[in-house]
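User: Can you model how copper (II) ion sits in this protein?
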Amino acid sequence: MIGQQTWARVDAPGHQVIHVTVARGYRPRRIAARAGLPLRVVFHREDPDACLERVVFSSPHVVRHLDEGAATAVELPAQPPGEVRFTCAMGRYHGLIALVDDRSLSLLGRLRARLGRTEGPLWLAIALWLCTLPLIALAAVFVLDPPAALAAAGLALVGSLAVCLLGFRSSGAGT
Ligand SMILES: [Cu+2]
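Assistant: Here's the modeled complex, given as structure tokens:
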């Protein structure tokens, strides 16, 4: 696990997806995904180079044509832990998918996978919270003592997080 890996997003219920840009190679080139869950790899081919018009997977052996300027989804079935390689037809460009056993994921890995799923609402929550801070500061000047102002800021943070996460979940976003 050397170098930068991009985690596939886990969607409810039990699907994971990763988007790969095809332009002078594959971006990201190193992908981490959970073993035992189907994985959808969506290729977005931006490069007219004929070399990149086909993608070949090692396991299972899948060959797909990628239309230029379009998205092509390759569905991989649930597989045991291990590595899946994909290359262009001539093997000039390649990418690697590391399938990791869910139970062996480190706490950090789990956190990272979770953050990948919630990073949208998380930023929204932080933005929302930052907006409430001037109001709380204003209130602190007139009515609140410092501990009460701190408590209000804490409550506002929890509230923003709750609103954004609930809103995100019920909207069914997460693709
Ligand atoms: Cu090639």
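A couple of observations from the model: Residues 107-171 form one domain. The radius of gyration is 21 Å.
User: Helpful, thanks.
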